[in-house]
């Protein structure tokens, strides 16, 4: 059995989530339902859950305030929210899970399935370090991203990424120190996440950091030379957007 706690300040949302779990997800035991930050902290410390479902907004507090007041985070969290775009982006950068209200049983089941697939459920501490860092440091150059690899989780500064290359369902990150990291996620997921941080997909297989473009050679689509010496083709359909974004830096 998975031991779980629900932290939610809206009675209707509490009851809806509890009923969905109780009726359809029999291997989860809801040990407590909390309505605010103080109740949540108390329940987590005393009951030591495996999984916490927490709304981001808890009255005048947030789930992030609550988590930062805990002596340790050795459980997983699935956040729930109806808004808070800035928070959702921070959650994504930290490789954490969230459900956007109103969510369906299918979406809830998928989030729980993702939790169960995690090989190392004790790596949450690193993810929350990245989350709290990104919430505190909103500037582009301060952003950090959590990358789930075969050997665990790596948290790196976004500004150290030169380029990302797709290989079917895997993405290889090439960093300024000549290191590379292989992640079992598609390039599309990172394209959406990094787009507003000076990254652009210039080819089906390549997402580059515009800050590390060293040279552009004209051609049908053209060729970009990156700071690490790599030459990357620019697709014809991406050429205009690439040149426009490069000029705006």
Question: From N to C, what is the helix and strand string?
Answer: EHEHEEEHEHEHHEEEEEHEEEEEH
Cα end-to-end separation: 52 Å
| Multimeric organization | single chain
**Approximate strand percentage:** 25-35%
Q: Largest sheet at a glance?
A: 5 strands, parallel
Query: Strand order of the main beta sheet, please?
Result: 2-1-3-6-7
Task: Give the % helix.
Answer: 25-40%
What can you see in these coordinates?
With 249 residues, this protein is an alpha/beta fold. It is 35% helix and 33% strand. The protein is built from eight helices and 17 strands. The strands form five sheets. A five-stranded parallel beta sheet has the order 2-1-3-6-7, sandwiched between helices. It is elongated, with a radius of gyration of 20 Å. The N and C termini lie far apart (52 Å). The model has no long low-confidence stretch (mean pLDDT 91).
């Amino acid at each position: 059995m998975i031991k779980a706690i629900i932290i939610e300040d809206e009675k209707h949302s509490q009851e809806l989530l509890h009923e969905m779990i109780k009726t359809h997800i029999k291997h989860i035991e809801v040990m407590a339902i909390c309505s605010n930050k103080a109740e949540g902290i108390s329940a987590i410390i005393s009951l030591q859950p495996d999984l916490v479902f927490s709304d981001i907004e808890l009255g005048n507090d947030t789930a992030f305030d609550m988590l930062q007041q805990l002596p340790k985070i050795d459980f997983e969290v699935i956040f729930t929210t109806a808004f808070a775009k800035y928070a959702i982006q921070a959650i994504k950068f930290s490789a954490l899970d969230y459900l956007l209200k109103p969510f369906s049983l299918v979406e809830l089941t998928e989030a729980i399935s993702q939790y169960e697939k995690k090989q190392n459920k004790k790596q949450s501490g690193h993810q929350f370090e990245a989350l709290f860092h990104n919430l505190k440091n909103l500037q582009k150059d301060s952003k950090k991203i959590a990358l789930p690899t075969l050997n665990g989780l790596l948290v790196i500064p976004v500004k150290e990424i030169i380029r990302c290359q797709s290989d079917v369902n895997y993405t290889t990150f090439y960093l300024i120190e000549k290191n590379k990291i292989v992640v079992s996620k598609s390039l599309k997921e990172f394209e959406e996440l990094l787009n507003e941080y000076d990254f652009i997909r210039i080819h089906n297989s390549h997402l580059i950091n515009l800050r590390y473009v060293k040279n552009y050679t004209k051609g049908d689509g053209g060729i970009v030379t990156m700071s690490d010496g790599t030459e990357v083709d620019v697709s014809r359909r991406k050429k205009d957007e690439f040149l426009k974004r490069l000029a705006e830096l």
